[in-house]
Amino acid sequence: MRRETTHEPDGTPMPEPKTRSRGALPALILTLALAAAADAQQQATELLGEHRWSQRLLLVFYDDPARTELRAWRHAIAASQCELALRDLMVAWLEAGHGGELGGRTVDADDTASLRAAFGIDATPFAVVLIGKDGGPKARYAGAPDLAGLFARIDGMPMRRAEAARQHDDCSD
């Protein structure tokens, strides 16, 4: 369909009326940013959903696998398998731009990026997010948290206190 052009009395075309207000572009950018955040949140919910109500998650985001702090923390985690199992705590290792592993399942780079966006982990080189059994974030750490402090935080949660009352702590060997 052809648009009709309006002309001035002297025959020159009239300029087209402006249809956008000054606030339209910032509003559009905000709308797109909110949509992207909602999409990242939805993707994170889908990725982590199978663990909801059965496991707590420790999402470890990093940019360099050779980082000394990360390597030391991996060793500390490996030495704490009994404490992790006792608290139903699964660790996910998620490298920026490369993906990672969550519960024995490979997570691709796009999923890792979605998880970073969903939990507000921007360009941070090393961050850890504790996710409760209800699927909500319970704590965020810039760098490696002290494991004793992390376990104490988990042990103070109401759901964990109820679990501990029914369990025998057999990690004290």
CATH architecture descriptor text: 3-Layer(aba) Sandwich
Strand content: 15-25%
| H/E element sequence | HEHHEEEHEEHH
Query: What is the assigned CATH homologous superfamily?
Result: Glutaredoxin
Radius of gyration: 25 Å
Q: Structural class of the helices, strands and pairings?
A: alpha+beta
What is the global morphology? elongated
Task: List how many beta strands DSSP finds.
Answer: 6
CATH fold naming: Glutaredoxin
Q: Could you tell me how far the N terminus lies from the C terminus, measured between alpha carbons in angstroms?
A: 81 Å
Helix content: 40-55%
Number of domains in the coordinates?
1
- Walk across the major sheet and give the strand order: 4-3-2-1-5-6
CATH class assignment: Alpha Beta
Kindly state the mean pLDDT as a whole number?
Answer: 82
The main sheet comes to:
6 strands, mixed
Number of helices: 6
Search tags:
173 residues, alpha+beta, Glutaredoxin, 6 strands, 40% helix, elongated
Short description:
This protein has 6 helices and 6 strands. It has 173 residues and is α+β, with helices and mostly antiparallel strands.
Indicate the topology.
Blueprint: H1 24-48, E1 56-62, H2 68-78, H3 81-86, E2 89-95, E3 99-102, E4 105-107, H4 109-118, E5 126-131, E6 137-142, H5 147-155, H6 158-166
Parallel strand pairs: 1-2
Antiparallel strand pairs: 1-5, 2-3, 3-4, 5-6
Helix pairs in contact: 1-4
